[in-house]
Amino acid sequence: MSKTCQETGFTASQQAKWPLTHSSLTNSLEKSQVIPDSVNEQLSKDILELTSEQEISKKLSERRDGIINHLKRRFDSKFRGSKLTTFGSSESGLGLKNGDVDLCLEFNGEKPKKVLNKIARMLRDDGMEDVTLISHAKVPIVKFIDQRSKIPIDISINNSLAIYNTKLLRSYNDCDSRVRPFILAIKHWALHRGICNAAFGTFSSYAWTFIALQSLQTTNPPVVPNIQKHGKRSMKIIEGTEYDLTMSEEPKKLLKENNSQSVGELLSNFFESFALNWPWDENVLSIRSGENISRSSKKWEQQKPSIIEAVIDDKNVRLGKHSLPVEDPFDTMHDLSRVLRPEGAMDIREEFLRAFKILTEGGDWKKLTETKFPELVNDSANTDLFEDLRIMPAQDVKDMLEDLQSELSVLESEIEIRNNERKNAIEMSKALRKNAELQREENKIANTLKPRRAKIEQVKKQRDEVNNNYIPVHWIENELSKVFKRLTEDVDLMRTPSLQKEIELFSWFFELQSMHEHSKKTREFHNEFKKLLREQKNALFELENVKESGTEVNLFGDFANFDDLAHKLLLEMNPMHTEKRKLKREIGRLEAWIRISSKKGGQKTRHNNRSNKKNYSKRRNNVNVAEVKSRAASGGALSLSDLDTLLNSGGISSISNGQQNGTSKKKKKSKKKNFSPHRGNRGRSKKGM
Predict the structure, then answer these.
(1) CA proximity to 305, closest of 286, 327, 322, 282
(2) How many CB atoms lie within 10 A of CB 253?
(3) Cα(583)–Cα(566) distance, rounded to whole angstroms?
(4) Which of 665, 1, 576, 570 minimizes the C-alpha distance to 282?
(5) Are the C-beta atoms of residues 266 and 226 closer than 8 Å to each other?
(6) Residue 560 has pLDDT above 50, yes or no
(7) Are strands 152-157 and 141-145 parallel, antiparallel or unpaired?
(8) Is the pLDDT of residue 2 over 50?
(9) How far apart are CA 485 and CA 465, in angstroms?
(10) In whole angstroms, what is the distance from residue 291 CA to residue 293 CA?
(11) 3-state secondary structure of 184
(12) Which uninterrupted H or E stretch holds 374?
């Protein structure tokens, strides 16, 4: 893309896909058009209207807070001592209403990628949608969408530097009232034109923010200054690397001139600049420098393959480094264009040319931001969890609840069946594995029997060969001791032994020594023989035990087959468990709505209940108590209502008393009237509800 050529090498389909880029490369694109002032005026109105639409409503804010609090609770239980912090465009004020919510989990103890893997599994279990782990990015993240609200969320680990980036962007936002509308307009355009998604090989929303700010820094006169150039130097080590986090405390004072352009003019200049003077041919975009800096000074030369080369060779899925370089403001070695793919880079070039062409032809904002890939755009978050239920009749909701409960019951039965099958497979695998181990042990023991038997025979033969005239060693040792004592004791002159006697003693001593060596060797062979016999006996005993421990399951096959079956059943159950969780959540939602909707008519229902009680009380009071007691006293027939009246007017014992003393009736009536005010108090309490 850095060189123009008459023949690009594009195929017909590629020329059709990027017609303006192809025309630009072949010098056949008309570039002398001027954007009319009327277009700029209308753009300003449309952008300001867009900005007002991007204000976060109370319901959306509450829904976001609800999701974040839910995640905090989940992470607190999963990762003890962790801290979840919000950062990014949702905090700096430069994000679209339905843009990503960026969260940073600060956690020590495990590698970030390992933690993100656990988070991804947890989110899938919670039923979150489009859970994507991007582990090879400069900052690995997990992306997902909340199932009910459709709010997209990104989670990174120990991304502390991003918190300072958020502070920097907030400072730029505070510099001028046009910053937010301008950046929101560019993000909205990039999102709807399909070039604001790093996962699909285009710039991220974060990168577009810096591209937009660079434009505001380099317009004449600048709308925003270089905030990082001035201020007290602030150096900090994060994750083992030192960063210069210097930011001016009063950035507005850094501007020497005031820029009076409308936001519409600023946006037109933005598209014109990128369409006619493609900045990336020789430059690197750097808001830290406050201007475009040369590739050579940054040492970020375009590496092969270039964008054109990679597109022509459709086997290339990656570009050479520094294709459209955008420098991170703090991590200056990080190029935000590293995520780009060949087609993504071409789409970016094409969309700049398209935007400029539309504006020069008098096109409007609607056409400029026409949605290219609707499936990638989330225009509205769902803040009303019961929106679809509000228009449904109550009975339909109840029927739906019954259907889901029935479906859940069937699903739970299927899970239970598979779980039992899996348990049986595991048990069979264990039994077969045990048998295999026992068989190996049996073979091992059996393999020792034959060599040991041969050794026993050999030792027995050696023992027998030296055991012709075996005399116990202990007897020889005792005799040696006696002879030695006689030979070395003091001589009594009166009883001096003869020379012949001494010769015999010495001869006997030497013979005993020879016998001792012979007997000692015999004893060693005998002891070894006994030891081998014991080992052989123990081995035979152990072999019998091993045989008895085995089970008759070998006919069912190899344990590996049952391991495979258990794994297969587990894979079958995983989506079923996910479906079970979804059903339970939906059942919970329906039950919650039924409770909420019933409360709306609850006051009326309670009022009707009280009215019924009052009417019943009036009917009961209209009954002639004296007549009922008279019938009861005379043994007449009594209805259930008569019995109720009788019990509430003093019971059976009051019959005789009432007949004997007429005044007691009046007392009872008077006592009964005393209860009326209490009923009235309970009735009046409804007003305070």
Answers:
(1) 322
(2) 10
(3) 25
(4) 1
(5) no
(6) yes
(7) antiparallel
(8) no
(9) 33
(10) 6
(11) helix
(12) none
Amino acid of residue 531: K
382 near 57, Cβ under 8 Å? no
Please name which of 104, 125, 344, 348 lies closest in space to residue 239, comparing C-alpha atoms.
104
Q: What is the rounded CA–CA span in Å between residue 364 and residue 283?
A: 31
Read off the amino acid at residue 394: A
pLDDT in tens, 642-661: 656 655 666 555 555 544 44
Tokens of 409: 């019951």
Q: Are 169 and 365 in contact (CB under 8 A)?
A: no
Q: Which of 469, 463, 553 is nearest to 511 (CA)?
A: 469
Residues 242 and 236 sit within 8 Å (Cβ to Cβ): yes
* Confidence label for 537 from pLDDT (cuts 50, 70 and 90): confident
- 305 with 161: CB under 8 angstroms? no
CB atoms within 10 A of CB 483: 18
Cα 54 from chain centroid (whole Å): 29
Residue with tokens 């996962």: 199
- How is residue 491 written in tokens? 């001589």
> Which run of H or E residues covers position 157?
strand 152-157
Distance of alpha carbon 137 from alpha carbon 86, whole angstroms: 20
Helix ranges, 219-288 (H):
263-276
Task: Find the helix or strand (DSSP H, E) in which 296 lies.
Answer: helix 295-298
Q: How far apart are CA 244 and CA 237, in angstroms?
A: 9
pLDDT in tens, 120-144: 888 888 878 888 888 777 778 898 8
Determine if the peptide bond prior to 305 is cis (ω within 30°). yes
Nearest CA to 346 out of 676, 19, 674 is that of 19
- Which residues 6+ apart lie within 8 Å of 167 measured at CB? 247
The tokens 């299927």 sit on which residue? 414
Cβ pair 143, 154 in contact under 8 A: yes
Note the residue count of the chain: 689
User: Which backbone phi and psi does 292 adopt, to 5 degrees?
Assistant: -70, 130
Three-point CA angle 227, 229, 230, nearest 5°: 80
State phi, psi for 304 to the nearest 5 degrees.
-80, 150
Is residue 266 a contact partner of residue 223, using CB atoms and an 8 Å limit? yes
Contacts of 670 (CB under 8 A, 6+ apart): none
Q: Which of 228, 332, 223 is nearest to 285 (CA)?
A: 332
The DSSP code sequence of 317-350 is -SPPS-SS-BB-SSSTT-BGGGG--HHHHHHHHH
By CB atoms closer than 10 A (0-12, 13-18, 19+), residue 238 is middle
Under 8 Å between Cβ of 95 and 89: yes
Please tell me the pTM assigned to this model. Answer: 0.61
Cα distances (Å, whole numbers) of residue 166 to 57, 86, 90, 209: 21, 10, 9, 11
Tell me the residue type at 314.
D
CA distances from 341 to 308, 313, 337, 627 (A): 11, 13, 9, 98
Between the alpha carbon of residue 5 and those of residues 27, 138, 570, the distances in Å are 8, 35, 58
C-alpha neighbours within 13 Å on the C-beta side of residue 429: 14
User: What is the residue-averaged pLDDT of the chain?
Assistant: 80
Residue with token string 């059976």: 652
What is the pLDDT at residue 666? 43
Interstrand relation of 83-87 and 152-157 (parallel, antiparallel or unpaired): unpaired
Q: At what angle do helices 662-673 and 653-660 cross, to 10 degrees?
A: 120
Spatial CB neighbours of 517, under 8 Å, sequence gap ≥ 6: none
**Cα dihedral: 68, 69, 74, 78 (round 10):** 90
- Whole-angstrom Cα distance, residue 526 to residue 546? 30
Residue 257 neighbours by CB under 8 Å, 6+ apart: 221, 222
86 forms beta bridges with 103
Segment (H or E) for 241: strand 241-244
